[in-house]
Amino acid sequence: MKHIKNTISLSVLLLMFATFVQAQAWEIPDGEKSKTNPLELNAANSEKGFEVYQKNCKSCHGDVGAANFMPLVPPPTDLGSAAFKTANTDGEIFYKMTTGKGAMPSFKAVLSDDERWAVIAYLRAGDKTDATVDKNAKLSIVANPDDKSISASITTKDATGKEVKLVGADIEISIKRIFGNLTIGKGKTNATGAFSVNLPEDLPGDSLGKATIIVVAKRFKQEEKIEIDWATPSKHHDLTAQASIWGTSANAPWWIMLLYIGIAGSVWVVIIYIVLQILKIARLAKKNV
Amino acid sequence: MEDKKNKKTRRDFLKAGLAFGAGSLAGVGLFSTIDGVKAETGKLAKVLTADGKIMEVDTSHLKEFGKKTEQDLQKRGRKGIAGRKWTMVIDLSKCRNARMCMAACQSAHELKPEQHHINVLAMQDAEKTAPFFMPKPCQHCDNPPCTKVCPVDATFKRSDGIVLIDNERCIGCRFCIAACPYSARIFNWSEPKVAADDREYDVELNVPQKRGTVSKCLFSADQLRDEKMPYCASACPNGVYWFGDMNEDAVTNGTTKETVRFSELIKNNAGYTLLPELGTKPSVYYLPAKDRLFEFNLNGKTTLDNNEHV
C-alpha cells in the first residue's frame, strides 16, 4: 500500500515538474524576433549550416526531420518538423541558439554569428538543396606523384551531348584515416574544370607511404577513391623494441644484463669456492686423524 | 672405513648436485608448460580436413575452429596492433559531467559502480580560478612507472602505446598502484560483478575480472582491434573525446565523427598533458576549458569549497 502511495506521489511530482518545465516559455525580446537571416538561402550556406549542425546540434536534436532526438526531459525538438519551423521566426531560432536555456546550451562563445545563421539557412532550406542530380555527371581523379598533387574534375554532357567539364562545382578531397576521413582540400573547380590540392608533406601515409584519397562531390552524389603510394611514409617508433628497463628481461639494456649476470655469477663463484674450501678442510682433518 | 665414509660424503654431494640440477630442469619444464607448450597426450583423434581427408592428430593439438583460446588472446594482447600509436585528446570545454563515458566503460569491463577505469573529476585549482570537469582515464605513458615495478611482468607496454595488465599473471601486490602518479589503477577487493564462467579471459578487455588483481583503463584495446573507437569516446554525447593514431597525425571525434589533424588540434588549442614534469610522456592530451558550452554545475554548486581545491 505504502509502495503504491509512493509511486503515485512520485508520478504526480514528476508530472508537475514536467508541466512546470514546459510552461517555462522562451521570453524573446521583440527586436530579436523580427530579425531575418542575413545569409542568402542557397545551397552553399545550407551546406555550411549542415556541417555546423552535424558537429554541434545533432548529438541532442538528432537528424533534421527524422525525430530521432535524445530522450531528454524536456525533449529536444525535431528542428526539421513543420511545427517548429512555423512556430519560430529566424530571429527566434537565432536568439535561442545564442542564449540557450536549461538543457539547451548557449552557443554564443562556440559558434560565430555566421555559423548560427548558416544553421538556420540549413533548417529553412530543408530538402531544397537536393533539387535535381545531374545523372550524366562523372567525377574523375588524377594523382600526380611529381608535385604530390591530387586533381579532380566533373564532366557532364551538354545539350548537344558533348562532354564538358563543369566549372565552379564543389569538391572535397580527403585522406582516409583509421576512424574517418581527414579533409585536405575543399573548393570549386576552376576555369579549366579542375580542382587540385597538394598533399601536405607532413601528412603521413602508412609505413610504406601508401594512402587512400577520397574525393566527394556532394551535390552530384559522386564519390571516388584512389590509392597513392607516394605519401610521406609514417615513422613508427616501436617503444617496446628499444632497450628499456620495463618489466620484461627480453629487451632489458645489455649493460644491466651484463652487470646483473656478472654480480650474480661472482657471488656464486665465491660461494662454491668457500664450500670447496670447507670440504677440503674436512678432508684434511680426516686424513690427519 | 674412513675412506669409504669420505667417498660416501662425496657421492652424497654429487647426488645432491644432481637432485638440484633435476629440480631446476623440472622447474624450467613447469614454466614452459605455463608458457603454452603442452605435452603430447599420445592419444590420437580423427579430424576432417577442409579438402575432405580424414587425418589423425594428437589430442593436445586440437582446438575448436575460429575460437580464440586464452593463449591466442594472451599472445596477440601482448603484441599490440602493428604500426599504430594510439592517442586521446580530451576537450575539457565540452565536458558537462554527463558520465556516459563512465557508464559505457563500466558496462564493457564489468565493473562495479564504485570502480573506475575512467573517472570524471570536478577540478578547481584555486579559490579564484574557474572550476571544470576533467575525465581521467589511464594516461598510457610512453615511459610508464607502473610497468617497471611489476615483479611478475603482468603489466606491460605494447608496441601501439597501450599499457595493459594481465590478470592471469597479476599477483595483487599493488606496486603498480603505488607507482602510478595518475591514480589510474583499481584493485578488485571483492568478487567481481559478473562471475567468471567458462569464458576465455581476454587481456584486451580485462574480462572476466578477477578478485585480488589490479585492473585499469585499456584504451578499449579490443575495440581498436576491430577499428572501432573506445567505449568512452563513442558514448560521449558532448564531443569531449578525440581519438586516433598519432602515426597518421589524425584524431576523430567520438560524437561528431569529425576527423582533424592531431598536431593542429593540439597547437591551436594549447593542448597539454598531465604532470609533464614527471617525464612519464602520457598518450592522453587535454584541451583547456576555454569557450565552454556549459556552465560548471555540480549538484547545484557553481564553485568548489576551499578544501576541495587541488
SSE arrangement:
The complex is a heterodimer of chains A (289) and B (310).
Chain A: H1 2-23, H2 30-33, H3 43-56, H4 58-61, H5 82-87, H6 90-99, H7 113-125, E1 138-144, E2 149-157, E3 163-165, E4 170-176, E5 181-188, E6 194-198, E7 211-217, E8 222-228, H8 254-288
Antiparallel strand pairs in A: 1-2, 2-3, 2-6, 4-5, 4-7, 7-8
Chain B: H1 2-34, E1 44-48, E2 54-58, H2 70-79, E3 86-91, H3 100-108, E4 119-123, E5 132-136, H4 145-149, E6 155-157, E7 163-165, H5 175-179, E8 185-187, E9 214-216, H6 221-225, H7 231-235, E10 241-245, E11 250-253, E12 259-261, H8 262-268, E13 284-287
| Computed structural class of chain A | alpha+beta
CATH class of the largest domain in chain B: Alpha Beta
Structure class of chain B: alpha+beta
CATH topology of the largest domain in chain B: Alpha-Beta Plaits
Average pLDDT of chain A: 84
The strands making up the biggest β-sheet of chain B line up spatially as: 12-11-10-3-13
Please compute the radius of gyration of chain B using only Cα atoms.
26 Å
Shape of chain B: globular
Give the N-to-C terminal Cα separation of chain A.
102 Å
Describe the fold and architecture.
Chain A has 289 residues and is α+β, with helices and mostly antiparallel strands. Among the domains of chain A are: 24-130, Cytochrome c-like domain (Cytochrome Bc1 Complex, Chain D, domain 2); 138-228, Immunoglobulin-like, CATH 2.60.40. Chain A has helices at residues 2-23, 30-33, 43-56, 58-61, 82-87, 90-99, 113-125, 254-288, and strands at residues 138-144, 149-157, 163-165, 170-176, 181-188, 194-198, 211-217, 222-228. In chain A, the strands form two sheets. In chain A, strands 1, 2, 3 and 6 form a four-stranded antiparallel β-sheet that branches. In chain A, strand 1 and strand 2 (149-157) form a beta hairpin. The radius of gyration of chain A is 35 Å and the shape is elongated. The termini of chain A are far apart. By secondary structure, chain B is of the alpha+beta class. Chain B has two domains: 2-61; 72-306, Alpha-Beta Plaits. Chain B has helices at 2-34, 70-79, 100-108, 145-149, 175-179, 221-225, 231-235, 262-268, and strands at residues 44-48, 54-58, 86-91, 119-123, 132-136, 155-157, 163-165, 185-187, 214-216, 241-245, 250-253, 259-261, 284-287. Chain B has a five-stranded mixed β-sheet with strand order 12-11-10-3-13. A two-stranded antiparallel ribbon of chain B has the order 1-2. Chain B starts with a helix and ends in a 23-residue tail after the last strand.
